[in-house]
Amino acid sequence: MNPFLQAAIDEAEQGLAEGGIPIGSVLVHNGVIVGRGHNRRVQRGSTVLHAEMDALENAGRRSAAFYRECTLYTTLSPCAMCSGAVLLYGIPRLIVGEHETFMGEEALLSERGVQIEVLHDQHCIALMKDFINARPQLWNEDIGT
Q: Would you call 52 a catalytic residue per the annotation?
């Protein structure tokens, strides 16, 4: 198992344990995790704290050059908002745990030069499928449907 994807999965599981949506993300710079996050919309009553946004927030203020040397790992394909943040900060590489349960803006990211690798991780898929089956209304709220 990729240790950075495992760190993102650990974040997703923490979010689920807190009563939230099980999506996790880590921002990696030169082989070191510099930001961790998980979806905290429920826990914080937030409209924007998806896992990727939380990881970026927890990485703190950084230079544009710094972000251009990072890789973002996420357990689930990123939505339009999170994809926009990847583009805004010029993050060149995205590693996605799975996109079977939700296909985000991967085509847009690819068109804009972001290198994407989808791992089709069975643990990530099962985590989301179980959550979507158990809490479909909360899931639909999170993805804006």
A: yes
DSSP string, 48-91: S--HHHHHHHHH-S--HHHHTTEEEEEEE---HHHHHHHHHHT-
Query: Catalytic pick from 11, 13, 52, 98?
Result: 52
Contact between 38 and 142 under an 8 Å Cβ cutoff? The reply is no
Are β-strands 24-29 and 32-38 bridged in parallel, bridged antiparallel, or unpaired?
A: antiparallel
Distance CA 6, CA 104 (A): 21
- What would the pLDDT profile of 91-118 be if each residue is shown by its tens digit? 999 999 999 999 999 999 999 999 999 9
